[in-house]
Amino acid sequence: MDNINIIKDNNTLKKFCKKCINEKVLAIDTEFIRENTYYPILCLIQIASDTFSAAIDPLSEIDLQPVWEILSNKNILKVFHAGRQDIEIFFNLTGKIPTPIYDTQIAAMFCGLGDQVSYDGLVNQFLGLKISKESQFSNWLQRPLTKKQLQYALTDVNYLIKIFPLIKKMIKKTNREKWVEKELEYLTNKKIYDINPIEIWKKIKIKTPKRETLNILKYLAEWREIECKKRNIPRNRLIRDEILVHLSQLKPTNIFLIKKIRGIPKSLNEKDLNDILKKIQFSCEIKPEKWPKIPKHSKKLNVNKASLDLLKLLLTYCSQKSGLAEKLIADANELRLILDGQIKDLEVFKGWRNEIFGKFVYQLLNGKIAFTIKDKEIKKIEF
Question: For 30-53, how does the pLDDT look when each residue is reduced to its tens digit (9 = 90+)?
């Protein structure tokens, strides 16, 4: 790839995007940095068709509107690999989600290629090539970018556009297009990119939570989220998750007690500490019936280990038979919920997951099937 096309001016970008408009499929990738900021810093946009490709430099004085128009053009399919973070960046900058889209990592899980297959693994599987990862963690903010960096960046989309028809052919052969489309709907849901600050507490891990603690945590996490967005700093740079949990459990009644809590950042100013205190006081006035319910995944489920192992065996069996990744079908927490009798609304009993796995769970629970080993393989026995 000696001829590296990097776009830094508006006229060249307009010409490039005009070519893109005539394409039915484009491979898209980004390079970004998200170490010291709340919002990722977009450093490079790579776009490729079957016949041409370019890297666009968003850090130059350039108007990206032609790119945004390509991303929203419903006549062009945008292909990503593990595209959630790329889509999040575009959503943050434009308020819109690219459409229509395709994600080869999601598609690969329907082809028996394992859980969350890496891009270099996909390239090796379909093209028989190995990718140098030398530039993967390089400084994408530096200018000028090196030739190696640009080669690495453009290789991603140039190979991705070749892989797309091959993986799509595999999906069509197994008649799983609708299944893939259903999973892709998740990536186009605005709620995963535009999280309401009052809901962010649900992402914080807490052992043996109490409803009162969760109620206080809810408002402290909301405060932190709003402040981090304003200051454009990572959440844990302002105050770590475990400190928010500790504050929620201890319920300090004044700033002096807040300062005494181990781990409280010295960088918090008096206004921050006052805001924290006000949030604690406000949440303590809320009536218990309005406290958040303990999420299902947070409850400690005492399930029989042998029964859990049997369900895991069934999951492995169904995964091998269908060629679908286990993680795509069900996770360990869902298996525990099944054994705890919390079957209602579980995804494993809906759509294609029910066909692949859910219906057999019911059979196993009702003693209709068992397993044996024959010719070194697991076999299902029906009664």
Answer: 999 999 999 999 999 999 999 999
Q: What type of residue sits at position 123? A: V
For the chain, domains (ranges, CATH) are 6-192 (3.30.420.10), 197-296 (1.10.150.80), 301-382 (1.10.150.80)
In angstroms, rounded to a whole number, what is the distance separating the alpha carbons of residues 108 and 114? 7
Token pair of 253 as six digits:
């009644």
Cα gap 100→272, rounded to integer Å: 42
Task: Look at residue 360 in the predicted model and tell me its pLDDT.
Answer: 95
* Number of Cβ atoms within 10 Å of the Cβ of 116: 14
Task: Give the whole-angstrom CA distance, residue 233 versus residue 239.
Answer: 11
Angle at 136 between CA 130 and CA 140, to 5 degrees: 145
pLDDT tens digits along 221-230: 999 999 999 9
Whether the pTM exceeds 0.70: the reply is yes
DSSP 161-188: HHHHHHHHHHHHHTT-HHHHHHHHHHHT
Q: What is the pLDDT of residue 299?
A: 62
pLDDT in tens, 140-191: 999 999 999 999 999 999 999 999 999 999 999 999 999 999 999 999 999 9
Is there a contact between 160 and 27 (Cβ–Cβ < 8 Å)? yes
To which H or E segment does residue 151 belong?
Answer: helix 147-173
Three-class secondary structure of residue 304 per DSSP: coil
d(CA 143, CA 92): 24
Residue 19 neighbours by CB under 8 Å, 6+ apart: 49, 52
DSSP string, 239-274: S-HHHHHHHHHH--SSHHHHHHSTT--TT--HHHHH
